[in-house]
């Protein structure tokens, strides 16, 4: 079995920068991380083990943290939430990705222009919550099937930074189709690392029989990579680490592709790659003819 790695995969600069900030904090016990710093369970466990308090994103996050300092994650928060935390006396450590900041600024610009802001993204995702938290008039659109004729003369469109470009294009086309008389403004906010990793997977899919995607199961950009394989009709496997790889799954494949989401640590990717090589070597031994 041959293994081919995607040309672009793994951690983006926003994630690396956020993790770099945590490593420079001498007293983690004084800091509450306002959600998951990145959507990778191993990273979250390591931060908790170091002494950081990590708020669970699946629960309400409007309680007052017990620590004097609060770290804003790479996914960002609304200005309203930022002000709430500051008014309660917290010192903020901000690791918001610059490209997420840009998406926030774009949404607010469209709102100032008088647009109904349509945010293409995953409803309930922490980044989307931050994008919409300062907007008086907005809707989150997850798929083209949700698009309708909107009762507003001006429509503004932004995307969650990790949206699949193909999905965004379908939704934008549908918005234009159902709102032919509306004034539509689109600001491109899908981040370059997402575009690069998706382009690398699309290139890879024509050369492999199956795809392994490494990353947290709550990571939107990781799930989008798996979605590309699904759309192409290629078998795919989403794992968070090497222990989830079962040799039987690979028995029918001669060539397997490997990619990873932007919140996946390099050493996890390396461990998965090593496990795949071990599986490939075992398959090769099993296929050798017995000695006469």
Helical content stands at 25-40%
* CATH level-4 homologous superfamily of the largest domain: 4-hydroxy-3-methylbut-2-enyl diphosphate reductase, catalytic domain
Subunit organisation of the chains: single chain
CATH C-level label of the largest domain: Alpha Beta
Task: Characterise the protein shown here.
- It contains nine helices and twelve strands.
- It is of the alpha/beta class.
- The protein folds into three domains: 2-9 and 192-287, 3-Layer(aba) Sandwich (Cobalt-precorrin-4 Transmethylase, domain 1), CATH 3.40.1010; 13-96, Rossmann fold, CATH 3.40.50; 99-186, 3-Layer(aba) Sandwich (Cobalt-precorrin-4 Transmethylase, domain 1).
- A four-stranded parallel β-sheet has the order 1-12-10-11, sandwiched between helices. It has a four-stranded parallel β-sheet with strand order 3-2-4-5, sandwiched between helices. Strands 7-6-8-9 form a four-stranded parallel β-sheet, with helices on both faces.
- The protein is flat and about 65 Å long.
